[in-house]
Amino acid sequence: MPITALFALPLALLYFALSFRVIGRRRAERVEIGDGNDRELLRRVRVHANAAEYIPLGLITMGLAEGLAAPPWLLVAAGTVLLAGRLSHAYGLSQSPHNMRLRVAGMAMTFTAISISALTAFGLAAWTFLS
């Protein structure tokens, strides 16, 4: 699954960057567990958690579609939209106050990428199964 693998690295780097932002704030505020009632830490935790919730599903659905021989152009498009969506969402939600336009655009792109990959995988699997 070379195309999915190409998108795994930048998405993993984004995830690590968001993780390090949480760790840095925890150290600065000396908060071991939870958010310590620190609004900025809570924001960073949620940005990180949102990435943890959507990046794996995006890569899994892309990998399934690629394993079922989806067109490379479609996989590249889905991966590009997923990466752009995750970057947009993370940046928009990281701002204080958050940038609602970037946040919403990021989620729309994320949902679009996952939907394209999942529908493609479903269609190819159904075609293979019924053939």
How would you characterize this protein structure?
The chain is mostly helical. The chain has one domain: Membrane associated eicosanoid/glutathione metabolism-like domain (Four Helix Bundle (Hemerythrin (Met), subunit A)), CATH 1.20.120.550. 85% of the residues lie in helices and 0% in strands. The chain is built from four helices and no strands. Helix 2 runs antiparallel to helix 3 (72-94) and helix 3 (72-94) packs antiparallel against helix 4 (100-130). The longest helix has 31 residues, at 100-130.
Blueprint of the fold:
Blueprint: H1 2-29, H2 39-67, H3 72-94, H4 100-130
Q: Count every beta strand, where a strand is a DSSP E run of 2 or more residues.
A: 0
Average of the residue pLDDT scores = 96
Q: Shape, please? A: elongated
What's the number of helices?
A: 4
Tell me the name of the CATH homologous superfamily: Membrane associated eicosanoid/glutathione metabolism-like domain
Report the CATH topology name. Four Helix Bundle (Hemerythrin (Met), subunit A)
Distance, first to last CA: 23 Å
Task: Give the name of the CATH architecture.
Answer: Up-down Bundle
Structural Rg = 17 Å
CATH top level label: Mainly Alpha
Strand content: under 5%
Q: List SSEs in N-to-C order.
A: HHHH
Provide the structure class: mainly alpha
Give the low-confidence spans: none
The helix content, as a percent range, equals over 70%
Q: What is the number of independent domains?
A: 1
Largest sheet: none
